[in-house]
Amino acid sequence: MNELRRDLENLQAQAIAQIQSSADATQLEQTRVQFLGRKGRLTTILRQLPTLAAEDRPTIGALANQVKEAIEERVVARRAAFESVPGDEILAKDQIDVTLPGRRPGLGRLHPITQIIRRICGVFVEMGFAVMEGPEVEWDYYNFEALNIPEEHPARDMWDTFWIDPATSQAGKPMLLRTHTSPMQIRIMEQTRPPVRVIVPGKCYRYEAVDASHESQFDQVEGLAVDEQITFADLKGTLHTFARRLFGKDRKVRFRCDYFPFVEPGVDMSIDCFLCKGGGCRLCKETGWLEILGAGMVHPGVLARVGYDPARYSGFAFGLGPARVAMLKYGIEDIRFFHGNDLRFLRQFP
Ligand code: PHE
Ligand 1 pocket, 184 CB below 6 A? Predict the structure, then answer.
């Protein structure tokens, strides 16, 4: 009897060890059959039961049952472990620690040029100007002709132009990418009667070699005011106010003669260098002045062309480049930073 007891105990120990070390469900099943199957090792031991004394049989029979149950239990547990492994891995991978601080979502921001355009427009809106926009693909007529720049006129050389394929333009009406926002002067005057006070931001294009201060696509902000009795003093007062609002209240401005075919007289405006206060430095190239825009009194020929009586109405116009304004204001040395998509640059303008 003691021999059988030992056999059963050994069998249990061996079975459990083998179950635990089985590598997969197939191996596990083989082990189960080996120990508990119809011709398995447990059955072999139980066959010896009749050789025992009658009073010993219940004890050994009960032990055999316990051994069988113990082994079956382990088999079931091990099988469950095999089946649940992939799920457990997924769960382990998907675990989140709800006590960790949250991740900050990446907030976007306005491009520095957009910010400057909005500030520029804001200053003029406060002075009673309305913001308007117009097409970037433009007729030759609005970009040149109506602005006193006829075909073959040498002034066209001031604006290196991207022309639209004549095949897609209408016959005899050449199209181009506007080289400045000034064509909007004409479009607006054609559609409204004085008083006119508009500010027009927008993209412009020039067939130009790209360098530290020129890009072939850039922004301009155009301004136009037409009414009775508008004089050069209005131009100066308006633009001086603008310069002080954007560059500081102590700003001085300087006007010098310049040539644009659609204004008479034409000027360029500079502000005294806010870095050196006019003394001369690297920013102002030792001149003490920073040129920031072109302007002038609307040419009588332009007024007449849109049906405004030049004897009754007069006006001023100006055009400026927000990129240049931003470069001066923030000391940016290369215009190509603006569209280089480098976050280290862009993040400096929150
Ligand atoms: N359109 C001119 C340019 O691009 C600037 C300008 C606008 C000058 C309005 C005078 C008046 O160079």
Answer: no
The tens digit of pLDDT for each residue in 217-257 reads 999 999 999 999 999 999 999 999 999 999 889 889 999 99
Domain identity same for 83 and 135 = no
Rounded to whole angstroms, how far apart are CA atoms 252 and 235? Answer: 15
Determine, yes or no, domain membership for 16.
yes
For residues 73 and 218, membership in a common domain is answered with no
**Which pLDDT tens digit goes with each residue over 173-205?**
899 999 999 999 999 999 999 999 999 999 999
Strand boundaries in 229-299, DSSP class E: 253-257, 263-272, 289-298
Specify which residues 213 forms β-bridges with: none
| 186 assigned to some structural domain | yes
Q: Whose CA is nearest to atom 2 of ligand 1?
A: 319
The catalytic residues are 159, 180, 206, 220, 263, 317
Mutate to test the pocket of ligand 1, among 120, 180, 224 (most ligand atoms within 8 A of CB): 180
Under a CB-based contact definition with an 8 Å cutoff, are residues 52 and 1 in contact? yes
Same domain, 89 and 117: no
329 Cβ inside 6 Å of ligand 1: no
The amino acid occupying position 37 is: G
Q: Indicate whether 207 and 326 sit together in one domain.
A: yes
- Do 331 and 197 have their domain in common? yes
239 CB less than 6 Å from ligand 1?
no
| Confidence check: pLDDT of 290 > 90 | no
Residue 143 Cβ < 6 Å to ligand 1 = no
Query: Which structure tokens are listed for 161?
Result: 């132009």
The H or E element that residue 152 is part of is none
Q: Are residues 67 and 209 in the same domain?
A: no
Q: Do 326 and 113 touch, CB atoms closer than 8 A?
A: yes
pTM of this prediction?
0.71
Q: Quick one: which atom of ligand 1 is closest to the CA of 319?
A: 7
Domain extent for 83: 2-94
